[in-house]
Design brief:
The chain is mostly helical and 409 residues long. Helix content is 73%, strand content 5%.
Length: 409
């Protein structure tokens, strides 16, 4: 018989209240693939709904249509004679469409228990006097007449189905604990076969106390790890702040040095003619002082000759007037040298900013003057007459060389 298909807005549909008791929602990558298929192909198989828009078959398609914002989905509105008939359709159609039961073991056990109730299936087969059995024989609900038929419909072996069914003896408290901790099914089956409901409740109570102790230890460990992490983070923050402060100090110092260098460069750029003149003056002065140094060396040789001449003058009884004249000349030379020394010192202070070669030249002049000043002040009276005359001439010559140099400076 052809059934009429009507379009309904998915927002008007709602899930059967016991659907989650038997079946899990599709999640993860499988759900994304399922939605993609619906988006591309649409809802190919109509939903089965009751007259009050309760979805009996097709809740996952309804979810996808809602998420995709579809305005209509195809539906077959079916009338049911009882709630058991609705449940039987809910379970059977979902099993046929999914191909296998992929719910967790507790939901599989709930399906087995509900199907046995609906078909009045006992350990040794079905109840041949039940209405469900009669409908089955009439071909309304397939060929489910015993546990083997039920196992075949669910895609399980009879033995495995019996093992899963034993989970129905697990109390709700233990089931919640087992699902939260992913307890192996084999262990749960052993518990179901060995412990009654009261023993299971006692075990859950003891496990709750143990779990509290474990949670307390875990929380303490978490706090310890947290405190350690906070301390390490604080140390890292302080180290970063110290490094940042040092970097700022170095940056400011670098900026200061850079500013000084820029000011110095600007000063040099603003006074190029003056710097060139100073450089030329330093070179001239160096050349003149080098020449003076050479002449001083020659004067030293002449001193030796003066000593010998003095000895000869003393032997020849040089007149007192000639001796006094020589002494006067030497005194004048000494005064000029002293003045030259002072002038050189003044020049040194004046040209401290000149290139190193110029300052070195002034040092050479000082060294040239030191021997004459020492002779005139300390040992003049001990020199023979010819030496005094020679030194006097030498000093006069040196002063004559220094005068132009002082004038140029």
């Amino acid at each position: 018989m052809t059934q009429e298909i009507v379009l309904k807005n998915p927002t008007s549909l709602h899930e059967h209240p016991r659907n989650q008791e038997f079946f899990d929602d599709i999640t993860g990558s499988k759900w994304e693939e399922f939605k993609t298929s619906i988006a591309q192909m649409g809802v190919m198989n109509p939903l089965i709904v009751t007259e009050d828009n309760t979805v009996i078959s097709g809740w996952q398609r309804t979810r996808a249509a809602l998420e995709l914002g579809m305005e209509n989905v195809p539906c077959i509105v079916r009338k049911f004679g009882s709630e058991d008939e609705i449940l039987r359709c809910l379970i059977e159609t979902n099993i046929r469409q999914r191909g296998r039961i992929d719910s967790n073991h507790f939901k599989q056990a709930a399906i087995i228990g509900e199907m046995e109730r609906l078909y009045n299936i006992g350990k040794r087969g079905g109840d041949r006097h039940s209405e469900a059995f009669k409908q089955t024989k009439a071909g309304v609900n397939g060929s489910v007449t015993n546990q083997d038929d039920l196992a075949d419909m669910m895609g399980l072996s009879p033995e495995h189905m019996r093992r899963i069914k034993s989970l129905l003896a697990i109390t709700p408290e233990l089931r919640e604990l087992a699902e939260a901790n992913d307890t192996p099914m084999g262990l749960l089956i052993s518990i179901a076969k060995t412990m009654d409901a009261e023993a299971q409740k006692e075990m859950v109570s003891q496990l709750g106390v143990f779990q509290q102790e474990v949670d307390s230890q875990v929380n303490k460990k978490i706090k310890d790890f947290l405190l350690k992490a906070q301390s390490e983070k604080q140390q890292q923050t302080e180290a970063l702040m110290a490094q940042s402060s040092e970097n700022q100090r170095l940056k400011e110092e670098l900026t200061s040095v850079k500013n000084k260098a820029e000011r110095a460069q600007a000063l040099l750029n603003d006074r190029p003619d003056e710097m060139q003149k100073l450089d030329e003056a330093s070179r001239v002065l160096f050349d003149q002082l080098t020449q003076s140094n050479q002449e001083v060396e020659e004067a030293k040789a002449e001193v030796v000759a003066l000593k010998k001449q003095k000895e000869e003058l003393e032997q020849n009884c040089v007149s007192s007037q000639e001796y006094e004249e020589t002494t006067r000349q030497l005194k004048e030379a000494q005064e000029k040298l002293t003045a030259a020394q002072g002038e050189i010192d003044r020049l040194h202070k004046r040209y401290e900013g000149l290139p190193t070669s110029f300052c070195d030249t002034l040092g050479i002049v000082r060294q040239m003057l030191k021997p004459f000043l020492a002779v005139s002040r300390e040992t003049w009276g001990t020199f023979p007459m010819e030496d005094q005359i020679k030194i006097t001439r030498e000093l006069n010559s040196t002063v004559s060389l220094l005068n132009p140099l002082m004038g140029a400076a």
